[in-house]
Amino acid sequence: MKVVQINAIYGSKSTGTIVREIQSCCEANGIEGYVAYSIADRPDAEVPRGYRIGNPLTAKWHAFISRVIGKQAYANRISTWRFLRWLDKVNPDAVHLHNLHSNYIHLNMLLRYLVKHDIATVVTMHDCWYFTGGCMHYTSVGCHRWKNGCGQCPKWRQIPSYCFDRTRSVLKDRKKYLSAIPRLTMVGASEWVANEMKQSLLKDLNIIFIHNGFDLDVFTPTLSDKRKELGIENKFVILGPASKWLLPINEPTLKCFLANMTDDTVLLLFGCSTIDETLPEKVIQLGYTKNPKEMAELYSLADVMVNCSREDTLSSLNLECQACGTPIVTYDATASKETVDGECGFAVITGDAEDLWKKVLWVKSLGKESLSEQCRKRVSNSFEKKTNYEKYIELYRQITE
Fold it and tell me: Do domains 2-213+384-400 and 226-382 have the same CATH topology?
């Protein structure tokens, strides 16, 4: 059997890592795993059975066209045609689509090809893009137009578009071409996103969910000298992603925590693109790291991680952190609540900063050590990569029989 995965990224970040690991799982199960991508974390020659779609120049052109016409994944016809000729040579039994919204491929050309050649197709929804008129998430603006066809989009300028709201016609195309694929399975990366799609115009498609998998050999309790380096050896450390904590909408959450934090507590924010000089000393700001081992060290040094995300298809941060033995307190928005169980991690009503703080105090009173084993066991039982990605192997075999 031959399976081709298509994703914007190969080998790094969340979806790029998932693609690489599914490819390895394919090879371990006697399946030839091919990959097509726009960006890779290594030279093209080192990507096994790989094909790069387009180049940096075509990606910039695609981004410009998308903004002008108000439609993403409607350009790069030549690059897409060349890729489809490569696909002819591979002659895959199944094609697995991941993220196609990064300015590198013409979606409708690809979908028409899959229909014409009757290729079994799997689509993993890492966000909501496939069943909307172009946005990846909509909960922050309380939009439900995707249920009836989009149009008059409150986020159309963020899709992005300079001039036009094309969301209605884009969603019409999604329904037309995806519905025409004879052997199609839509897979949510979380139960939440799968259930959302079941309320959309594409609700009649075959929709299931398979959780993303995590490497418990990489994300494991890891000793380091980072507490000593940061001067927080005797502190209760609250870890948090800066990309969520420093959003304007989460300013009340930050103020609540700063008002309640005592001298023995620090808030350690990671992933800071710049240093905010207005924050007090009890907020330590760290930059971004791509190194999984360094992230495991950060997760491990914390007593608790607080994630005030309001839109997540499935929070990798929450699960990686729990795999390192550190409990999570999170808002229950979208799929974040799927990452905790109320025993080693807790979800509170989104925006309730006081309750978020109370759960942190509850973790502090219990002590991290009393929760660590259960945290890791939860990830092992429900999110271990080999177990979850072999579900895709089973799916490939089912749809190609």
Answer: yes
> Burial of 295 by CB count in 10 Å (0-12 exposed, 13-18 middle, 19+ buried)?
buried
Query: Which amino acid would we find at residue 53?
Result: I
Q: Name residue 5's amino acid.
A: Q
**For the chain, domain boundaries:** 2-213+384-400, 226-382
Give alpha helix (H) positions in 117-250: 167-180, 191-197, 226-230, 242-245
Q: Are 338 and 191 in contact (CB under 8 A)?
A: yes
Q: Which residues pair with 328 in a beta bridge?
A: 305, 345
Number of other residues whose CB lies within 10 A of the CB of residue 393: 18
The answer to whether 25 touches 384, Cβ cutoff 8 Å, is: no
Res. 163 pLDDT band, cuts 50 70 90: confident
CB-CB neighbours of 195 under 10 Å: 13
Count of CB atoms within 10 A of residue 95's CB?
A: 24
Classify domain 226-382 at the CATH topology level. Answer: Rossmann fold (3.40.50)
User: If you average pLDDT over every residue of the chain, what do you get?
Assistant: 96
Specify whether domain 2-213+384-400 bears CATH 3.40.50.2000: yes
**Is the model's pLDDT at 48 over the cut of 90?**
yes
Residue 310 corresponds to which tokens in the numbers above?
């309001």
Q: Is the pTM of this model over 0.90?
A: yes
**Residues 268-289: tens digit of each pLDDT:** 999 998 999 999 999 999 999 8
- List 175's β-bridge partners, or say none: none
Contact 10, 98 (CB under 8 A): no
pLDDT, tens digit (0-9, with 9 covering 90-100), for 100-156: 999 999 999 999 999 999 999 999 999 999 999 999 999 989 999 999 999 999 998
The predicted pLDDT at position 303 comes to: 98
Q: 186 — phi, psi (to 5°)?
A: -95, 125
